[in-house]
Structure formats: C-alpha cells, structure tokens
Task: structure prediction
Amino acid sequence: MGEPELCARRRFTPLDAAHDDTGPPTATSPYAIVAPRHKGRTVNLMEYQGKELFRSLGIPTTPRGELATSPGEAQTHAANFGVPVMVKAQVLAGGRGKAGGVKYCEDADEARARAEDILGLDISGHTVEKVLIEPASDIAEEYYLSILLDRSSKGYKVIASVEGGVEIEEVNRTRPERVLKEDIDPTVGIDRDRAKGILTQANFPDDVIDAGADLLVALHQGFVTSDATLFEVNPLIKKTDGRVIALDSKVTIDNNALFRHEDLAAQSEEEADSPLEARAKEEGLQYVKLDGDVGVLGNGAGLVMATLDVVNQAGGQPANFLDVGGGADAEKMTESLSLVLSDERVRSVLINIFGGITRGDEVANGILAALDNLGEIPQKLVVRLDGTNAEEGRAILDDADHPSIVTADTMVAGAEKAVELAAQA
Amino acid sequence: MSILIDSDTRVLVQGTGNQGTFHAKRNAGYGTTIVAGVHPKRGGETWEDLDRPIYASATEAVEHQDINTSMILVPAPFARDAIMEAYEAGIELIVCLTEGIPVHDMVDVYNTFYPRAADGSFTKEGRPVLIGPNCPGLISPGKANVGFIPESSTRRGSVGLVSRSGTLTYQLMHELNAAGVGISTCVGIGGDPIIGSDFMDIIPRFAEDPETEAIVFVGEIGGTEEQRVGRWIHENIPDTPVAAYVAGFTAPPGKQMGHAGAIVKEGGDGGETAADKKEALTELGIDVGMNPSETAQLMIERLS
Result:
C-alpha cells in the first residue's frame, strides 16, 4: 500500500520553525521572501542522473555506466567494460535516438568513433556535452511505463503500453487502445496486486507481470518519496535472460520540494535551458527566454503573460518572460533589467507594473535608481505604471526626463510603443 | 450579500511573523475582524501590533474564540501542516496565501479535505472551503478583505471576479472601477496545479449570490478547468453576463510561465493553450477579451 511512504514523508520539519520568516514585507507578492530558494521551475534529470536515482530507490535498471566528455574517455570506458556498449547522448531532450544520439558499439574503437559523432551534436537545441557509456543490454522485448502527477484527478496517473522505445505520444495518437492510463488514488497508492492488475490490463505478457509489478511498485514508491512529478521508463525491457529493467529514465522533480532533497537539488544546478535562465535561477528570478526582441518585465506571473500577449498583438515578438515578483526596489529592478538587457537580441524593453501594495512612486524611483546603477544603455525602456499611486509614479518619471525612459498610459499603448522602438533600433 | 467572506467573517491568522502581521494589520484596517494569531512558540502572548491574543495552535484558538476563517501565511515547507491544523480545528474557510508549496503536499491536503466518492468525484458538500495556495486571497468590498488584494481601487458592486493571477485581478478590478463598476466578491484562486477551489467551486456560488449579477473570470495556460466552467455557465446561467480572459497566448509549450501551474504540457490531451481555451469558451457563447483591458471593456459594455 502507498500509505507507509506517504506517512514517512509527512513530518519533515519541526513546526516550530514555521514562523521564523524574516525581512520586510514586500509588495504584490509579499510571500516571495518566504518562498524556498528553488522556487518556480521543475528539475529535469538527465538519463544517468535518473538511473542513479532509480538505483538508490531499488528500481531495477542498467548496471552503472560511465560518463565521457571526450572520444578518448569513451574509448577507455568501453575498453574497461570489455563488452559491446551503448554510447548515449546526455541531454534534456526527447528523440535522442532519432537524432543519432544513441549508438550501439561492438568495441572500444567503435565507441570512440561514435562518441566523436555524438559529442557536440545538436539535439532539439541542446548541445551534447557528455555521453553515457554502458554495457549493451540483450533486449528481448520493449514496453513503456510511467507515473506522473495528474492535476485533474488530484493524484497520480500510471501510463502503460506494450509499445516501448517509441514516442508514447505517437502511440497514443495512432493506437490509443494500446495505451492504458490508470488513475491512482494517492491515499491508496499501488500495491503488488494493483500493479499486476494494471500490467495485465495493459496486455503485458504473462512472464513479465511479476517482475514488472515489482518494478511498478518500486517506481510508485520512489516517485512519491522523491517528490517527483514524472518518472518515465521508455523503454522498459525484458532481457533475454528474462529480467525486467528500466533501460532509460526520464525524471522530473518538483522544485518546490527541493528543500527536502538536497542531493537532487545539487544535481539540478547542472541543468539549464540557457545561460540567461541559469543566471535568473541563481538570482531567484522567474525568467523564461523567448525568441523575440522586445524585453518584457512586470510584476505577477499573470500580468507578465498578459504583457507577452499584448506585445504579440501589437505585431512584436517578446524576448523573454520575467516576473520581478513582489516589490520593485532599486536592487530588484537593477538585477531584472540587467538580466533582460544581457540578451543581445533585446532592442527595447517594456516594463509593466501594476501597483498594488507596492506604490507607483516607489516603482518609479526603483527604475530610476536601476538606470543609475546600470549606466548608459542603448535600448529605450517603455514604462507603464498603473494602480496605486500610478500618477505620482508617472510624474516622478516625467520630472526625471531620463533619456532612456518613455512612459505609456496603458498596457496596449506601452506594447505598441515598445514594438515600434524595437523595429526602429 | 457576497460570497465566502462578509462582515461576519472572523479571521484567525496562522503565521504571526512579518508577513502575517503586515497583512493582518492591513486587513484589520479595512474593517475585517481579525480575532487572533497562531504561533506554536508564542501561545499565551499578546500579538502587540494587532492587540489580539496568540494561541499555540488553531485548535486552541477555536476553543477560546469564535472563528470561521483562517488566513495562512507560513513559509512553504510548513504550509501543509498549517493547513491540516486549520482543518482539524474545524475552520470552515481556509485561505492559504503561501507560494511554493510542494505539489505532493497539496495532493495530500486535497485528498484529505475532499475524499473521493466511488465514482471518482470529490466530496465538496459539507467540507471546509480551501482557497489557494499561491493566491492573493479574497475581498468583498466594503465588508472584508482577507489577504493581499489592494483595496484602494475597487468598490462595492455586482460583478463577481475570480482569477488565477494576483496582479491581473488587480488590473481588472482597477479598470472596472475606473468605469464605475464595483465588485461583489473577488476571489484569487491561485496559480498552482493543485488548488483547493477552482473556477467550478467559485462560479456556481456567484450564480446563487443575489448581489452578484455578472461574472468575470481570468484563467491562464495549463489544465482545462476553464472549459469545464465554461460548459457549466453555458448550461446553467446562459443569461448572466460573463466575460473572460485567458493569459498566455504567446507561451511556448513545455515552459513554465512563473506560476507552477502555468505550463502547457507537451504531448498531453490538448486544450491547455490560451488559444484552445479562448476558442472553446467562445463556442460556448462566452465573451473572451484579447487582453485585460478589452475584457474589462466587454464587461462594462454588457452592463451599460
């Protein structure tokens, strides 16, 4: 049953510590200062990290492999194994096999050659910097198995299919009857009988049910204790000797829970979608890199999403999503603006702030102080202030008459102005 | 009338640190009745800034005071236990403002609050109402304010407003206010994947509230709750003026846009993008604005 591990997870910190928040209250998102350091995003583990985690959780997978960052290293590892190996690109992207990032090699020389091909390869925008070398498995059959957090059923969902090693989305589209999706009540969990039932219903062969069920029970238990939102095994394989193991791993961990998983938090530092996103993460800013040339920053996730929408409707392309969160003091504005402006594609910036508990005059002063800190910048900043003390804020900006600042009265007017300035720059 | 909070609201504040104190004072200043605070190590003391007692637990607080609402402002790692404490104390309305709570904690909370019936649906009847987490709280203008919502730019009126996003809510309230349109109750339901109350838990309450004559709801990318409530509106209150906005038309799939729940799942069952939601709602006869201003304008026109 799922209950024991749920209970084990529940009491993780003394409640006494709960009330020791520090620092002054900030504005629209006053809780921001008490949020954990890793807030916001999810953490994806690469295959080798996911397999490490699987091993520590008792989920059967391949024996330990070795990482290589050069063809020479790959050759050495393969020679040490002394058996045919797989050379597998370690990137956070799907479709590695299709992109030529996964190769079978008979010997060490071949491993060297394949590693040379794979290292530096671009897979869906991710450059391969390391490869995993592991002894090749004798595959008899391939299946698919995953467990994920399911928003609509407020619990978990297990997905199982006898078609493994291919994209499950594709199987789901073309042969949905081959994909079993089973809701799991989190208060009940998955015991061995339930696991056997699921695999039987998904038409797994009889000789795989027992070992597969053990693996599914461990997968579920590990998923819960790791605070994961996804544990995916594709493919799950039956080896020629009959054993059932995870040949690949895709793991996503809830960032909000990293405070109780220091080991996983350390691994996440390695992962970054882009250098700017990595920097934002370090500074605790909610930043997503996009493809356009209009830099966007605002307060509140919803407002920033809406700002991207109006920039787009005004005929422009946003360069990023950046939620400055609560407060807009000089330090926060300096950090945020400097981040947005380090994207060399940015030709104008739209600052969209709704003053709630933060007042418009405070925001205006924060922007001016940030510009003092940053020195001269080539881009124009279009500032749109609304809400509490917006008029006072606009007056401060008008009085300052800063050469880099253009004010706008509405979100739509601000977006139009920013798009126009980007086109001219 | 209004929904969930009004002049009879009596609030317990769980978390008497800087955050809790700052907002409890603001809310009290608005006329909200703040009854007491909870701090496990300061039971028996007086909460100086509010001149109210502090109890060691929510259960102890309800033994001594008349309380019907709890506002929770403790750091994320402890929020699950604070919510459960309010639940065990039998408090009817629990508003959790904290951001960044682990999603598995919310799975535990939700399944405790709302047990599954045999058909897989959740029992809401007779159970406490949980608003949030990761939300700005709620306000019934002129009556009570529980949470972060700035009160300066709204007035009492007949529009029920419900939103996943804090600042977008303020923006809409502000624009409606500028046109003289007031609010019955504004509820920020929060931007997390698992929240205590979703659109479907709030909008039917507006439909039953005699003071609420029109509804504005603000959704965003991720999940498909907007469609679900759209169908409910279409079937049950087709004559009520309703305007909606969905944020995130330009959000790329697989990227989380600030809110933990604001993500278009790749390879999911569809319906999670802003465009999908707008199309579905429009087909159901609901006015959807392209941006917050246009949405406010749609409502103002419907009411004039």
Q: What stands out?
A: DSSP finds nine helices and 14 strands in chain B.
